[in-house]
Amino acid sequence: MSLRFAIIGVGNIAPLHATAIQSIPAADLVAVCTRDETRGRAFADKFGGNYFSDYRAVLARDDVDVVALCTPHDLHAPMTIDAARAHKHILVEKPMARNVAECDAMIDAAKRAGVTLGVVFQMRFDPLVANLQSLISNRLGQLLWVSTTALWYRTDEYYRSGAWRGTWDREGGGVLINQGVHVIDLMLYLTGMPTRVTAQTRTLNHQIEVEDAALAILEYADNQLGLIQATVAAYPGYPERLEIVGARGSAIYHRGEARLEWHLADPRDDGETRGAVSSGASAPMNINAAGHIAQYHDFVAALRERRAPLIDGREGRKSIAVIEAIYRSAACGQRVEIGD
Ligand SMILES: NC(=O)c1ccc[n+]([C@@H]2O[C@H](COP(=O)([O-])OP(=O)(O)OC[C@H]3O[C@@H](n4cnc5c(N)ncnc54)[C@H](O)[C@@H]3O)[C@@H](O)[C@H]2O)c1
Known about the structure:
Shape: globular
Number of strands: 15
Strand content: 15-25%
Distance between the termini: 39 Å
Helix content: 25-40%
Order of helices and strands: EHEHEHEHEHEHEHHEEEEEEEHHE
Number of domains: 2
CATH class of the largest domain: Alpha Beta
Low-confidence stretches: none
Structural class: alpha/beta
CATH architecture of the largest domain: 2-Layer Sandwich
Strand order of the largest sheet: 14-13-12-11-7-10-9-8-15
Largest sheet: 9 strands, mixed
Bound molecules: nicotinamide-adenine-dinucleotide
Mean pLDDT: 97
């Protein structure tokens, strides 16, 4: 039987979810929900499904198996908890939530209800990431250093485009929790969790209350060092990258250019590989659907095989634990421990 999806929230990112659902033969979009009726009906006309103005009406339906949450960050936790209680599986957009306490409540609700919770981080599904994973496991040796640089750009108009954007209360933070979270998740996925952080955040060039720039120095249990540089004040927005230095060689993942290069002790083992470019460096919707399609395939396979998806609640929570610690460090001006 087909899995029946509902998309809740039909703004910027929702079309990529609809495209991903359409790419799976055994999946159907049966419901779309937003409070903006004109937009909701237009979305349903284009991609299918019935329109609903209240997400609780969607959750009450027997013909919905999975809800895709494409709503502002403050709604991720309450909508996930309500969906779990209604026995729906949940695929929630990044960031998982505004803080670790919300993530824990979401994980707990899904566990109690026996439903599957997935968190969208489509960058993990880039085929170059598998190449990089293999280099880390087999070629680079002990990890010494990992850094990520996301010199991105967002206009003032972007921040004016939604009342939730640029606010602590609704977005839960700025560049770190919205844009930087992508590369932070990737970094943690590939190289593990740091134990301590020292950070500075600033609002450099936008009229918003949250940070548009952040620098964080990371320490790991095994003497490895890490660095996060993330801003949305760098006009016109440059391709993001991830640098990984091991005892036997280094790899630079030019993620925003879809290029991976590596340099090993024996130069004959050096290499470079390329993929398809999809980067939100200059504008959020300069990305294609490939990552979402790959993540939906994993999520649907996970439901069919009764296994956890690649990015479940515990995985989605990791970037929030690090970002929360960065905010704490920036606020107190001290080095802080990253909780588990
Ligand atoms: N994975 C990615 O690359 C990517 C890219 C962009 C956005 N996102 C994430 O997707 C989520 C949504 O971002 P966006 O840019 O599409 O936001 P948006 O503001 O464009 O759209 C939000 C949608 O939610 C709807 N909504 C708000 N409150 C609602 C409610 N109570 N009930 C039903 N619908 C409601 C709005 O009407 C709107 O349709 C965020 O978590 C964001 O971080 C992810």
